[in-house]
Design goal:
Strand content: 35-45%
Distance between the termini: 51 Å
Largest sheet: 3 strands, antiparallel
Radius of gyration: 25 Å
Order of helices and strands: HEEHEHEEH
Number of helices: 4
Strand order of the largest sheet: 3-5-4
Helix content: 10-25%
Oligomer: single chain
């Protein structure tokens, strides 16, 4: 069964005379900002909650806010629970890996570097 396009995709495309489609300027993002190189970094945190596994995972993600200011993804590594005397779950716990983007910063140019390295630094 062929997949249909979403409404948003159809709204941003307009027909061309030969039956093809062309993406409009609105969907391309007319404003272009040039960002420097970034790296995806991963932090592993733990969280807990007396309510549910979901709340424990959210607690772990919010605990990573100091290290990962804008998380882009989370992977649940481990789920476990603390039990009370009657074998009911007293506390839900989760270990989560949180991914975030971090800007790469070029190291400062050293005075004793090679001539080629100084030329590259001047061009940048």
């Amino acid at each position: 069964m062929p997949r249909s396009r979403s409404t948003a995709s159809r709204a941003t495309r307009r027909k061309v005379g030969n039956g093809g489609s062309r993406v409009s300027a609105a969907s391309k993002g007319a404003v272009s900002t040039k960002a420097g190189p970034t790296a995806v970094r991963i932090v592993e945190t733990a969280g807990s909650s007396p309510k549910s596994w979901d709340a424990a995972v959210l607690d772990a993600v919010s605990a990573a806010k100091d290290d990962a200011p804008a998380p882009i993804a989370a992977e649940v590594v481990r789920l476990w629970a603390d039990l009370d005397g009657r074998q009911r779950i007293r506390r839900y716990r989760a270990t989560v890996k949180v991914a975030y983007r971090d800007a790469l910063v070029a190291p400062p140019a050293s005075a004793g570097g090679s001539e080629a390295a100084r030329k590259r630094a001047r061009k940048a």
